[in-house]
């Protein structure tokens, strides 16, 4: 993989750039003269030109390209924007005030094979309806189809989706570790830090003290998830907190799990009122009850995405730390396959 290119003779500026790049986990190629930059110009994922060599670089008429930044340590320099245009840069970044943005630019440049993952949210119409189980099974089915999948536990009081999968002892980071780290999360770093099982990566909570997820932390994880995964499944709490709202605003589709009885529909309608404020594509997954599925969907005013029948052996299977069988001939596997087919782009 090619590295970002820095073009400068200013040693103090170079020291700053090396430090900022290290914060993003990036190593640099450095050119101290425009001629030295020529072999790297078209190959580097990002080109950072120091203000000291901008005019000299412009004089060589380098080919136009994206991902060129002009960096200066003198924010009062009136010629900065003239140099920016002359060299074909897309922006001027002043140091030290622009360090955070430059860290993000270096980190973006180092992302391998960026993807455009789809975010799917699952929420229960009432407690114990099976939303977490459906979230886990969707993620397992997607990863079984060789889709790189991230399963996010967004419910601090849910008991841990890693425990539901029988993987509570798995080595890797949890939410508390990510929240302690401020700023942007790289997709490669996220994948390396979290517990993974084949194509499935899981982000859950530590046991013990319960702490809400800051909205910024959820935003960073979701952005990294979309860059590094094909599918991101988020298991939401019924009482929406700022982190859950962040997930809903980025969701391509949301599944509301509702029980087909009067109380279940009334509870799901209350949840739906809140969810509707933050996302638009909401579909019902209906559990068995005394009402017909079409009555439930009509009462909620959203389309039915599928019927989730009772699975008497499923709780025992999960409590033994075993994963459910989700082949296409199983009821649960067929449902998840149908849901993914409807929710994911062709």
TrEMBL record:
Domain Rv3660c-like CheY-like N-terminal: 7-115
InterPro entries: Cellulose_synthase_operon_BcsQ (IPR017746), ParA/MinD_ATPase (IPR050625), Rv3660c (IPR022521), Rv3660c_N (IPR059050)
Pfam families linked to this entry: CBP_BcsQ, Rv3660c_N
Protein name in the entry: Septum site-determining protein Ssd
């Amino acid at each position: 993989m090619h590295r970002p290119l820095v073009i400068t003779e200013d040693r103090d500026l170079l020291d700053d750039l090396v430090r900022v790049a290290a914060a993003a986990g990036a190593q640099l190629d450095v050119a101290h003269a425009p001629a030295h930059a020529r072999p790297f110009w078209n190959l580097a994922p990002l080109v950072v030109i120091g203000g000291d060599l901008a005019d000299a670089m412009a004089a060589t008429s380098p080919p136009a390209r994206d991902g060129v930044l002009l960096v200066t340590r003198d924010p009062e320099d009136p010629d900065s924007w003239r140099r920016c245009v002359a060299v074909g840069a897309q922006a001027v970044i002043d140091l030290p005030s622009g360090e955070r943005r430059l860290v993000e630019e270096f980190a973006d440049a180092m992302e391998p094979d960026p993807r455009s993952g789809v975010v799917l949210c699952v929420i229960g119409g009432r407690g114990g309806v099976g939303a977490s189980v459906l979230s886990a099974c969707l993620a397992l089915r997607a990863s079984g189809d060789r889709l790189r999948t991230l399963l996010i536990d967004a419910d601090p009081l849910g008991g841990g989706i890693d425990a539901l999968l029988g993987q509570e002892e798995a080595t890797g980071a949890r939410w508390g570790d990510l929240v302690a780290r401020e700023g942007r999360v790289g997709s490669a770093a996220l994948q390396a830090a979290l517990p993974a099982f084949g194509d499935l990566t899981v982000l859950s909570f530590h046991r013990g003290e319960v702490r809400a997820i800051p909205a910024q932390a959820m935003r960073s994880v979701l952005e990294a998830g979309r860059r590094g995964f094909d599918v991101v499944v988020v298991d939401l709490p019924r009482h929406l907190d700022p982190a859950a709202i962040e997930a809903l605003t980025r969701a391509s589709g949301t599944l509301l799990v509702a029980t087909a009885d009067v109380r279940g529909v009334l509870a799901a309608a209350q949840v739906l009122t809140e969810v509707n404020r933050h996302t638009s594509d909401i579909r019902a997954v209906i559990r068995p009850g005394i009402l017909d599925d079409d009555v439930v969907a009509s009462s909620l005013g959203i389309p039915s995405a599928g019927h989730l029948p009772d699975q008497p052996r499923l709780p025992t299977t999960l409590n033994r730390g075993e994963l459910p069988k989700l082949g296409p001939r199983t009821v649960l596997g067929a449902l998840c396959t149908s849901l993914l087919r409807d929710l994911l782009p062709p």
